[in-house]
Each structure stands twice: as structure tokens, then as C-alpha cells.
């Protein structure tokens, strides 16, 4: 299947026209002991975002989940999510869309002059429109990841009017449909390159920094321990956002991040 898909990456591809959720399917394959599979679908009928939020995945998208069993400690797992964001950004840039990453896992398109425009703001990030989202699920012991499923949802050839407010798509940004097969192949190849060894993983944070929209901006992060507000200054191993607040420098490991007006 990898060859039929024209893929230069170490995954076999399971393609479905229609599926409940590619992440669910990848988890099933994980339970069967499988690895190195990418589940790709045209349409999902029951897809999920983080924290059990709904993810809209009509026909025309690139909805995929990559199942691997990386030989790394569980503490480094967040790097795979960041790698998927980098890979998605690079695949978008290859078709001419200037995508950037909002910490930790949203891929956005910021339009000229939109950064301060209230009309263009939304819950997913002021001034940025959400092109893609990533949902990572895993199981393992502290010293080693068991299985890891990284689910990537990209609004490819979809009319943004049919998506939640604040969303955009590749076709809308490009003015024409994109070759989804090629886009998916680029994404998977780039992801494999960034994650195929512990040494390769060392390159994820530098690559992420170069493509980040969040760094240098005022942010408000909703975390399990409360709101953290300040200036995002860096991302640190294994994917924490470093925020300068009035109370000093803090590291945030998980949460919803909103870009504030400067
Ligand atoms: C995410 O969640 O951004 C992760 C989305 C992961 C989806 C992929 S598709 C392949 C794989 N299979 C799955 O079942 N899931 C993964 P989060 O950060 O929680 O953002 C969810 C929020 O984004 C929703 O509450 C909506 O506001 C918004 N949203 C929903 N669908 C959207 C879309 N298609 N485009 C842009 N925004 C959307």
C-alpha cells in the first residue's frame, strides 16, 4: 500500500473513503499489535479534537493518523505532536500556503493585517485561522512509549463556510483545490524524517521555533492549574511553552493557548 500511495516513508497506508475516526482505527490497529501504519480518510463521521471536543471532518479533507512504536521515553512523546505540526506546516508551504504553528498543535494561516483585527479573531487564536489540528494519543510505561497515535486533521479541499468559525482551508487559501494525495505524502514523509530516530527528534524544537506564530507574543494559556498570561518566549523540551509572566518565568506543559493583542 505504501508504494501504491507513492509514499517515501516507512508506513503502510490504510485508506478509507469514510470512517468514524482515523485515530480510533489506529488505536484498534495498535491493540492488534500493529505499527508503522498511516490510516487516511476522505471523510470522518465521528472525529475528535482534544478534550473530547468535536472535530468536523467532511469529505475533502486530509484526515490521517500515524501509528508507531517509537523507542523513546514517554517524557519525549510531546515532540511527536510538535513534529506533526512542523510536517503539516511544511506540506502547506509546499502548496504555497504560509502556515504557522500556534502552541502546541494548531496550524494557522494569518492574513495580512489581521493580527489586530477583531473581525478576524476567534476562539482558536486572535487573528489566525485554523487550517489543521493535531490529536496525539498514546500508551506506555515511563521508560518507553508503547504505541503512539498522532492524528492530523487538515482542511484541504473544503469550503470554510461549512466549518466552525475561524477555520480556513488549503483550497480557500490557494484559490484552487490541492492534490491531497501529494499533500498527505509530503506530510508523512516529513513526519518520518523528523521522528525516525532519537537524534532526529533533537531537530524538532529548532524546526518548530522557526515556524512558530506564538513566540514573542502575548498569550493567555488555560491550564489545569489555572490561567497563565504573559509573553511566550520559547518552547523547551519536551514541548513546554516558556512564558514570562508578572510573577516570573513559567513553563506550561499543556493547555489551550490564545494569542492576545499586543
Ligand atoms: C484539535 O483539537 O485541533 C485536534 C483535531 C484532530 C483531528 C484529527 S483528524 C484525524 C484524527 N482523527 C480524529 O478523530 N482526530 C484526529 P482542539 O485543539 O481541541 O480543537 C477543536 C476545536 O476546533 C473545536 O472545538 C472547534 O472549535 C474547532 N474545529 C472543529 N473542527 C474544525 C475544523 N475542521 N477546522 C478548524 N477548526 C475546527
Low-confidence stretches: 114-125
Under CATH at level 1, the class of the largest domain stands as Alpha Beta
Question: Could you say which structural class the secondary elements and strand pairing correspond to?
Answer: alpha+beta
Average residue-wise pLDDT? 92
CATH architecture of the largest domain: 2-Layer Sandwich
What does this structure look like?
With 262 residues, this protein is of the alpha+beta class. It folds into two domains: 12-213, Bira Bifunctional Protein, Domain 2 (BirA Bifunctional Protein, domain 2, 2-Layer Sandwich); 216-262, SH3 type barrels (Roll). Helices cover 23% and strands 34% of the residues. It contains six helices and twelve strands. It has helices at residues 22-31, 78-94, 170-174, 180-195, 198-201, 204-210, and strands at 12-19, 37-44, 62-68, 99-102, 106-110, 128-141, 144-154, 218-223, 226-236, 240-245, 248-252, 256-259. It has a seven-stranded mixed beta sheet, sandwiched between helices. The longest helix is centred in the first third of the chain and has 17 residues, at 78-94. It is globular. Mean pLDDT is 92; it is low at 114-125. Biotinyl-5-AMP (BT5) is lined by residues 21-23, 44, 47-51, 53, 55-57, 63-65, 124, 130, 133-135, 151-153, 155, 163-164, 167.
Amino acid at each position: 500500500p505504501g508504494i501504491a500511495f507513492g509514499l517515501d516513508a516507512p508506513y503502510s497506508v490504510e485508506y478509507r473513503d469514510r470512517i468514524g475516526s482515523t485515530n480510533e482505527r489506529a488505536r484498534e490497529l495498535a491493540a492488534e499489535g500493529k505499527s508503522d501504519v498511516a490510516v487516511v480518510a476522505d471523510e470522518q463521521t465521528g472525529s475528535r479534537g482534544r478534550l473530547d471536543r468535536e472535530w468536523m471532518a467532511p469529505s475533502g479533507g486530509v484526515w490521517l493518523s500515524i501509528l508507531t512504536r517509537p523507542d523513546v521515553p514517554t517524557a519525549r512523546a510531546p515532540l511527536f505532536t510538535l513534529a506533526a505540526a512542523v510536517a503539516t506546516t511544511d506540506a502547506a508551504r509546499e502548496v504555497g500556503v504560509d502556515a504557522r504553528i500556534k502552541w502546541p498543535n494548531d496550524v494557522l494561516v494569518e492574513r495580512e493585517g489581521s493580527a489586530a483585527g477583531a473581525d478576524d479573531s476567534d476562539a482558536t487564536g486572535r487573528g489566525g485561522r485554523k487550517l489543521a489540528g493535531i490529536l496525539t494519543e498514546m500508551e506506555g510505561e515511563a521508560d518507553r512509549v508503547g504505541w503512539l497515535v498522532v492524528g492530523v486533521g487538515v482542511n484541504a479541499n473544503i469550503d470554510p463556510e461549512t466549518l466552525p468559525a475561524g477555520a480556513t482551508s488549503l483550497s480557500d487559501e490557494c484559490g484552487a483545490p490541492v492534490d491531497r494525495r501529494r499533500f498527505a505524502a509530503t506530510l508523512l514523509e516529513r513526519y518520518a524524517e523528523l521522528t525516525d530516530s532519537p537524534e532526529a527528534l533533537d531537530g524538532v524544537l529548532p524546526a518548530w521555533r522557526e515556524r512558530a506564530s506564538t513566540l514573542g507574543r502575548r498569550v493567555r494559556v488555560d491550564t489545569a492549574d489555572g490561567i497563565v498570561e504573559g509573553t511566550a518566549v520559547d518552547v523547551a523540551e519536551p514541548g513546554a511553552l516558556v512564558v514570562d509572566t508578572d510573577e516570573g518565568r513559567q513553563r506550561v506543559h499543556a493547555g489551550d493557548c490564545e494569542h492576545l493583542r499586543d
